[in-house]
Design goal:
This protein is about 30% helix and about 35% strand. By secondary structure, it is an alpha+beta fold. The strands form two sheets. A ten-stranded antiparallel beta sheet has the order 1-2-4-5-6-3-8-11-10-9. A two-stranded antiparallel ribbon has the order 7-12.
Length: about 240
């Protein structure tokens, strides 16, 4: 079995053409691969959901990497969902459950590779970046726009992401933030993180991640510090265990 399948295999269960994620698998991926300590990914969370980045990783492992790819998330996946992931991609391909409920829409174009080393490199580079969205990047964005999420019910939803690669004949990929912005519409915000994809110092592509922030109110530094401190304390406790 090749490297990329072994890398991602332990984070999902595969029965025929159906994929299912246990709470432990999804939580382990969030914390160990994405360095993401969002409480929604804790195994005991009442509103538990599978990280969107894990859906992205499984898609690439099963269907390969295309030069242009866009992922639009439309439903929260739990440990109870059994999903059908495509093994070939095109325009507006859906990830659905047995009732045809849609959770993810994928569009892919351009050349394709199934190079396991490149796919693993891109997955780890992207999800490591994506997992650091909060508090590293979003707190700064919210402070800049003088808004913050509801501390009693912090809602940050992963809306979509896209990548555009100039070429696929590279061995590995790293990622750097290019620009970040937050657009406010009443109590709702749209955060966009634009990033560059690099290989051995050369820019070989770019991409962006979009998130929806709801329940916005006026920024309060002390409250935001408490939210960030709670997040960092949860991360420290996990790493010390």
């Amino acid at each position: 079995m090749n490297k990329i399948i072994m890398f991602i295999d332990k984070f999902y269960n595969n029965t025929g053409d159906k994929i299912r994620f246990s709470r432990q698998q999804a939580s382990d991926f969030a914390k160990q691969i994405a360095d993401d300590f969002n409480p929604l990914h804790n195994i005991e969370a009442k509103r538990f959901c599978v990280p969107g980045d894990l859906l992205f990783a499984v898609t690439l492992a099963r269907a390969g990497l295309h030069q242009q790819m866009r992922f639009k998330f439309s439903g929260m996946v739990t440990d109870e969902n059994e999903l059908h992931f495509p093994t070939t991609l095109g325009e507006n391909v859906k990830v659905t459950d047995a009732n045809d409920k849609e959770y993810l829409e994928i569009s892919a174009a351009g050349d394709k590779t199934t190079n396991p080393a490149l796919i693993e490199s891109l997955v780890k580079a992207y999800v490591g970046f994506s997992g650091h969205t909060f508090p590293h990047l979003l707190v700064e964005l919210m402070a800049r726009e003088n808004v913050m999420i509801n501390p009693a019910r912090p809602m940050i939803m992963y809306e979509s992401m896209a990548i555009d690669l100039k070429r696929l004949d590279v061995a590995e990929i790293s990622l750097e933030l290019a620009k970040s912005e937050l657009t406010i519409d009443g109590k709702r915000g749209n955060a966009c993180l634009t990033f560059n994809l690099l290989s051995e110092g050369e820019m070989v592509g770019h991409g962006e991640k979009h998130m929806i922030l709801s329940g916005l109110r006026e920024f309060d530094q002390a409250t935001m510090d408490n939210i960030a401190n709670d997040y960092n304390a949860m991360k420290a406790a996990y790493q010390a265990a």
